[in-house]
Automatic annotation (TrEMBL), chains A, B:
GO terms for molecular function: DNA binding; DNA-binding transcription factor activity. It comes from the Eukaryota. Residues 175-186 have a biased composition (Basic and acidic residues). Keywords: DNA-binding, Homeobox, Nucleus. Coiled coil: none annotated. Residues 101-165 bind DNA. It is found in: Nucleus. Residues 1-32, 159-204 are annotated as: Disordered. This is Homeobox domain-containing protein. One of its GO terms (cellular component) is nucleus.
Length: 226, 226
DNA sequence: GATTTATGAATGAAGG
DNA sequence: CCTTCATTCATAAATC
């Protein structure tokens, strides 16, 4: 398989993952190894196959989007993204380099956030797909964003707003009104909360299941596992 | 594999150097000021665009080859997914002492997941009730699980896999055109196991793509560009 | 620059 | 199936 060396993209290394399908081999290259697994006779596992497939699809999509973006931008050169600090993220282009490190999470620009919040107040229900599409298109003028991002945003916003209502203010009816979105970037401070919902009580059995990262050396022998 | 867009002629030639930063968005200004001037102009040069396309084609070719290779090899040997060993974590007996903080959500163990994925790839349709029962029984050897879990898992897996695939095709012109008539729920999420990250090239507008982590966790293709 | 917090995204579970 | 919700995971941003 010499072609292995020729493909366009350079390797992307990523430290952590969700479901890593581990090849059946636990022994070989943990996180770093980029080894073609011919070891077992299989060129790649089914999972890998799907991943590859997904990646190609993604590539196609990205390409489309880039072209779109490129087109629209060149047409009217006024689309400036306000936020360019240290964010990097360039999928393909970046990956072409030799070293990759990237960001993976979308972060709304102040303007986008403001708009989103505004919409949120007005419409309590969840925006329809169509609406999401529209919103995304609107927001795209203020920075990179996808429909998925919008969808997730509303989902999270709704969920968290609700939870806050229920947990933090059991006595009060609720006030959906919350802090207005101002410039988050400049100075966004948050009043310290008493509790973090994130600290999970150490439950022994969780360890076993919790870890989705199926890194090769999974915690098969996690001592905690009572 | 329909996702392969077109059989590229060029045999895996690799484009070199997409560091488009050079004249385009050059080094992103660190954190302070975005010195990215190119952003205002073009997202990428025509040359870069072409390179990108070439890469996609290359990917498609590689994929085809891999699939072929994989197919021929696997036909010969069927490997039963049996490789797990010790791994255990006790079932969800969360009740330790008096306070019961039972876990509410089942989380597949790495082994279970692996098996499920295997089955998923082999049988495209939904497993029958009977089959689910059998699968659950099998998986139970590797950790707590119920038929419901299995059922849900397949349902979610199928749905998400499908959705992902569907989103890829629709041509999107989200720039300013908001004339979408129909709203196919668009949601491109989760390439299942990667949380990759990429960066390096400082581009501000890529957030939108962040979820298309195209890195292949196993760099079995390790394509390096230059 | 190590820790903590806020929040985008992934995913098990339900409802229809 | 499809959509939505609830919970959890992972990480950018904020703090210390």
């Amino acid at each position: 398989m010499e072609w292995v060396h020729q493909p366009p993209q350079q390797q992307l290394q990523q430290p952590k993952d969700h479901h890593n399908d581990q090849n059946n081999d636990t022994g070989n290259g943990g996180n770093g190894g980029g080894v073609v697994e011919v070891l077992y006779g299989k060129v790649m596992t089914d999972e890998q196959l799907e991943i590859l497939q997904t990646q190609i699809s993604d590539y196609a999509t990205i390409c489309e989007q880039l072209v779109e973006m490129h087109k629209s931008i060149t047409d009217k050169q006024e689309l400036a993204f306000s936020r360019m600090g240290n964010l990097h993220c360039d999928p393909l282009v970046a990956s072409v380099g030799n070293k990759i490190t990237a960001r993976q999470r979308w972060t709304p620009t102040p303007v986008q956030l403001e708009i989103l919040e505004h919409i949120f107040y007005q419409c309590t229900g969840s925006p329809s797909k169509q609406k999401i599409k529209y919103i995304a298109a609107e927001l795209f003028q203020h920075g990179p964003i996808s429909e998925t991002n919008v969808d997730h945003w509303f989902q999270n916003r709704r969920a968290r707003s609700k939870r806050k209502r229920l947990n933090i203010s059991p006595n009060n009816a609720e006030s959906k009104v919350e802090k207005d979105a101002e410039s988050p970037r400049e100075k966004k401070t948050k009043p310290r909360n008493l509790h973090s919902q994130r600290d999970s009580a150490p439950r022994a059995e969780d360890h076993c299941f919790k870890n989705r990262k199926m890194s090769f050396k999974t915690h098969f022998m996690d001592p905690r596992t009572n």
